[in-house]
Amino acid sequence: MKKLLILLSVSFISLTAFSQNFNFGAITYDDYEFDRKKLDSNANAIVLKEFGTASVQLDDATGRLELVFDYHVKIKIYNKEGFTNANVIVPLYKDDTREESINDLKASTFNYTGGRFVETVMDKKAVFTENRSKYTRLLKFTLPNLTEGSIIEYSYRLKSPRLFNFKTWEFQSEIPKVVSEYVVYIPGIYNYNVSLRGFQKLTDQKAEISRECLRISGANIDCSKITYLMKDIPAFIEEDNMTAPSNFKSAVYFELSDYTNPSGGKVSYTKTWKDIDYELTSDKSFGSQMKRKDVYKDLIPSIIKDATDDLGKAQAIFNYIKKQIKWNNYYALYTEDNIKKSLDSRSGNVADINLSLVAALSAANLDAEAVILSTRDNGTINKLYPVISNFNYVIAKVNIGDKSYMLDATEPLLPFGLLPLRCMNDQGRVINLKKPSYWIDLKASQKTSTNYILSGKLNAEGKVVGTLTTISQGYAAFNKRKEIKKYSSPDEFVEKLDERLTKIRILDHSISNLDSVENLLTEKYEIEFTVNDGSIKNQFYLSPFFINAISKNPFNLNVRTYPVDLGAASDERIIINIDLPEKYNLLEKPKDLSIGLPNSGGRYLLQTNLDNNTLSLSQILQFNNAIYQPEEYPYLKEFYSRIIQNQKAEYLLKKAD
Asked: Which residues pair with 649 in a beta bridge?
C-alpha cells in the first residue's frame, strides 16, 4: 500500500509563479463557460479557485496570540445535484474560556442574465449557528438564487486561539478543484511538524522569509512564508467500508513541535511516550480514576460471588458496569468528573464507564489496563510522534492467563471481548499504571456470522409455506439486537418486518437469546410466500434469491486509492429446501458457482439442485479479511459483479409427464 503520510521539509527557494488571492466578484465569462470535461465530465460542481492564508497575530484587545485564517472560494454549479455545495458549514471550536469566531463573511451568487452577470448577495439572516457539542458550534449559511449554471463565491476570516494545530488545509473535497492554494506565515519562534496526507501530489511548493511579520513585547519576529499549490484535483469519492475520509483526502497538517519565548526559554510540545505515560497516569481525570479501587472494593464480593475463575470474575464485573452506568453518547478520553459520581448517577461518557471498568477489575485483583484509541470517524493515529489530542476514546483491557480481552462497557448488547465497530481502527496505545505504554492491534475477536435456513413446501395454491431460521453471531447479532430493541417489543419489531417484506408473509415467530448476548441470537419465523397464483401448474419460474439478494455492487469506482475496511471478517450461509407436491423437471437454474478472492481473501459458493422432489440451494459468502488494500479493489468489484449477474437467473420448473 502506498504511504499516506509525507513529511514536508521547508527549503527557502522560489519555484514557479503562484496565483495569489483573487478579487471578490470578479466573475469572467471563462468562469461561466468552464468545461467540466477538463477535470470530470460527471461533476455536479467544480471549484474554480480556492485560496487561503493562515498567520499568527496579536489580538490587541486581549493581548493574546491568535491564529487568523482567511478563506476564499469560487464554485461553478452545473446542475441541481450541485446545489448542495451552496450549503456551507464551518465548525467553530471552543473551550471553557475561549472560542473561535467568524468575521467579514461575504457570500454571493452570480447568474449570467441578459449578457451580463447579476449578483445576488446573501442576506445576513441566512447565517445561523448551531451547538453541536460542548466544544463545537457549527456556523451555517446557504447561498441564494441558485440555478443550473450559477457561480457561487464566499469568503470569511476565522480567528482561533488554537495554535497547536495551526490550520489544516484540505486540497481534496467531494468535488473537483481547478486550483487550490494555501499560504502560511509561521513565526520563527514556532516550530511545526508539517505533513501531507493523501495520494495527490503538490503541483508546487515554495518557502521564503517574511520579515518582521509579528511583533511581541517590542521584539520583531520573522516568519517562514510557505506556499502550497495543487492543481487539477480530482474529487474524493466516499464509498462504504472506509474509516475517516480525513485519513485519505489530500491535505496538509500542522502540529506544534516547540515554541521559543522571545525573552528566552524553549517549550517543547513534541513529547515522548514516557512523557505521555506520566501525563495520563497522573491526570486526575484519567490515571487517578484508574487507581480508584476504593469505589468498588465493597461491591466486588457480591458482583463476583458466582464466579469460579478469573474469567468468570471479569465477565461478571463487565456485565455489572454495563447495567449500572448508561452511556450518554459522548466520546471522551477523560472522565467528566470522577467514576464515583458516574456510578452514583448511573450515567457517564466513554471514559467514565471504561475507566470505572478498569478500576473495578483492579479491585478484584485482576490485571487491568486502559487502551486509548482513535475511533474510525476520527482518523488514524500518526505514530511518528505522540500527540494526545489525536486520541478520542478509551477502553479497558484485562489480562487473564496467557490471554488478553479488550472491553467496552458502553454497549449493553455487545458480548464480553467484542469491541464496537467504531473502535476497529488500526492500533491503540495500552496505558499501564506501572509499566511503559505500548501499541496493540485493534482487531475484532469474532467474525460477523449469519446462517439462514429455510425448510418449506410448495402447496397446490402455488404458495411456499415453511420455517425460516436465522442464527446470528458477532456484529451481525449485535446489529440485529439493536434493531429489535428500537421497538417496544419483539412483537412490534416482527409486525414492522412483516410490513416491509412485501413478498413474504410472517405467520408466527419466536426470538431466542435477545438479552443473552453471549449466546447465538436465533430468530424463527413461520412464513409463506407466493410462487404462482395456482393457475399455472405445468410450468413456472421461481427465484431462489429472496434472502439477502445482492442486487447492487458496493464497489463502483474505477480506481479506489484507499483500503476497503469491513471492520471484521464475515461469513454468511443460506440453505433452502423446498418440497414440491408433484414430480417436476428442472429446465433452467442458476449456474453452480465457485469463485474466490486472491490470497484466500474470500469465496462465494453456490449449488442448486432438484432431487427427489426437493428443490435445494446452498450459498456461502465469506470475506476472510477485515481490510482489503487498494490493489485488491478490482478483484472485489469483479467478485460482486459475477455474483449479481448469476443471481439474476431463476429456476424454471416443468411438471413431469
From this structure: none
Closest CA to 504 of 535, 561, 464: 464
Q: Could you confirm whether domain 273-441 is CATH 3.90.190.20?
A: no
DSSP per-residue letters across 517-579: TTS-EEEEEEEEEESS-SS--SEEEE-S--SS---S-S---S---S-EE-SS-EEEEEEEEEE
Q: What angle do CA 573, 574, 580 make, to 5 degrees?
A: 160
Please name which of 140, 147, 104 lies closest in space to residue 125, comparing C-alpha atoms.
140
Q: What percent of the chain has pLDDT over 70?
A: 96
| AA letter at 152 | I
Residue 587 and residue 580: Cα distance in Å, rounded?
15
User: How far is C-alpha 508 from the geometric centre of its chain's CA atoms?
Assistant: 38
**Which DSSP letter does residue 425 get?**
S
Q: Are strands 326-327 and 347-348 parallel, antiparallel or unpaired?
A: parallel
CA distance linking residue 320 with residue 303, whole number of Å? 7
Cell numbers linked to 97: 474560556
| Cβ pair 171, 198 in contact under 8 A | yes
φ, ψ at 146 (rounded to 5°):
-80, 140
Could you tell me which residues come within 8 angstroms of residue 95 by beta carbon, excluding any fewer than 6 positions away?
A: 135, 161
Contacting residues for 396 by C-beta, under 8 A, at least 6 apart:
354, 355, 357, 358, 361, 368, 369, 370, 371, 406, 407, 408, 409
Q: Is 419 helix (H, G, I), strand (E, B) or coil?
A: coil
Which pTM value belongs to this model?
0.86
Interatomic CA distance for residues 212 and 495, integer angstroms? 72
Domain boundaries, the chain: 5-268, 273-441, 448-655
Q: Which amino acid is at 78?
A: Y
Number of C-beta neighbours around residue 234 at 10 A:
17
Q: Are 248 and 289 in contact (CB under 8 A)?
A: no
In 3-state terms, what secondary structure has residue 322? helix
Specify the CATH number of the domain 448-655. Answer: 2.60.120.1130
**Four-residue CA torsion sign, 633, 637, 638, 639:** positive
The predicted structure's pLDDT at residue 13: 32
> Topology of domain 5-268, per CATH?
Immunoglobulin-like (2.60.40)
The C-alpha cell at 344 is: 452514583
Q: Which of 181-195, 354-368, 541-555 has the highest mean pLDDT?
A: 354-368
Distances (CA, A) of 50 to 21, 108, 335, 474, 614: 8, 15, 41, 46, 66
Cβ 399 vs Cβ 349: under 8 Å: no
Averaged pLDDT of the chain = 92
Other CB atoms within 10 Å distance of the CB of residue 340: 16
Give 406-428 pLDDT, tens digit per residue: 999 999 999 999 999 999 999 99
Could you give the CA distance from residue 491 to residue 511 in angstroms, rounded to a whole number?
9
Which residue has 492500533 as its cell numbers? 427
